[in-house]
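Sharing a chain and its predicted structure for anyone who wants a worked example. Both blocks are below, sequence first, tokens second.
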Amino acid sequence: MSLRWSPLLFRWHRWLGYLVALQVLAWILGGLIFAWLPFQAWVKGGEVLRKPQLSLPASWQLQQQELPSERGALLALQAVATPAGAALKLRHAQGGESWVLAGGGPLAAPTAAEVEAFARTLYIGEGPLLGVEQIDEPPRRLGLVRELGERPGPFWRVRFDDRFQSRFYFDTRSGELLAVRNEAWVLYDFFWRLHLMDYQGGEDFNNGWLRAASAAALLLVISGLGLSGLALARAWRRARRHAAASSPG
């Protein structure tokens, strides 16, 4: 029985070991990246970003007597910092968003010069500004990383020539800061996707790849236990044969 099962179990155990080892290596490397990269300072760009200051004018509520109503009832209101100053972002029942100045009146879409000036007030790093450009979608990095996820464009992107090549992304309609990205963030996000085995959104903890990896790891353990059991059985039989051969008479 053991002679028939041993080669089969060994082949399964070996190939499962190769597959599981690759993912375990990705988990270990990812763990090192997560532990050693300063998250807030480097990955989140904290060392180069001054968070937007938001100061609403006095009696700002009285300036909003005629909020846009063509998109249905107002579901949410959020104060945001823009190149034109404090503004209100409105989310409507019929979908979509609109913006008004906190002091009253509509918010005009910012120009490239206004976005650049706003970005300079937020950037506290030492690198010179490389450029301001409007893009539909950031290029995919390392084959997996999408710097703004599934968020639809277009965007304003402002690039700085510092040690991590910082990139500030702004909404083209309002000018509010959407995200800060850099090479440290790209590396972190790449290994985060490998860690979760979610190669699309990078947020699904219950995806098919992860289930398959856990099943493969379980089969690896089971096959290893089977090989151990067969090895023990062979050793026990050899011991019995040796004892029988060495017994007197």
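Comments welcome. The chain has two domains: 1-45+185-244, 68-181.
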